[in-house]
Design goal:
Blueprint (H helix, E strand, L loop, with lengths): L1 H37 L8 H7 L2 H7 L19 E5 L5 E4 L3 E2 L7 E2 L8 E6 L6 E6 L5 E6 L9 E4 L4 E5 H16 L1
Antiparallel strand pairs: 1-2, 1-9, 3-4, 4-8, 5-6, 6-7, 7-8
Bound molecules: zinc ion.
């Protein structure tokens, strides 16, 4: 009797392990499918090619991980409604709705336009432990993210103006309208 109970017990364990493995596999496949859809296409250029398409300031920030002088950037004290795109590849990075004045001298955002549009890497340069933020499409350096931002995220994406290109909400609306008119003809 004991032996039969023990065998049944093992069967139940085996079934549970099998079921969980299946569940895990399905989750993984779904995640991979979603990731495939969401991941922006990568932009890959040589150093020489980047130099041709970027201004010296943009090249210094995006490709050489530079930092603009605090308070010197175009978008530090700039609060117009619109969106911020990567100056290297046009990837949509931040929305004006998440921008705030952190008083640090660089444009600050509480979150990216979409999580998968930026990547975060550990940065140990200059004897500090920081989290570097890069564009997920072209790998361009944007700035750093810190944990001293406002709620609800508590994050401060401290971004160089020269890594960004701004389009106002009006500009975006006009472009969408003209694209619609063209596609209707
Ligand atoms: Zn980019």
């Amino acid at each position: 009797m004991m032996k039969r109970n023990l065998i049944s017990f093992y069967w139940i364990i085996l079934m549970m392990v099998g079921f969980n493995a299946c569940k895990h596999e399905t989750q993984k496949t779904t995640e991979m499918k979603e990731r495939k859809i969401q991941l922006p296409e990568k932009v890959v250029k040589t150093d020489e090619e980047w130099k041709k398409v970027l201004t010296p300031e943009q090249y210094y920030i995006l490709r050489k991980k530079g930092t603009e002088r605090p308070g010197s950037g175009l978008y530090d004290q700039f609060f117009v409604e619109g969106k911020y795109y990567c100056a290297g590849c046009g990837n949509e990075l931040f929305d004006s709705g998440t921008k705030f004045d952190a008083g640090c001298g660089w444009p600050s955002f509480s979150e990216p336009a979409a999580k998968h549009n930026v990547e975060e890497h550990k940065d140990l340069s200059f004897g500090m432990v920081r989290t570097e933020v890069v564009c997920s499409k072209c790998g361009g350096h944007l700035g750093h993210v810190f944990n001293d931002g406002p709620p609800p995220t508590g994050l401060r994406y401290c971004i160089n103006s020269d890594a960004l290109v701004f389009k106002s909400a009006v500009q975006i609306r006009n472009e969408t309208d003209s694209a619609n008119i063209q596609s209707n003809h």
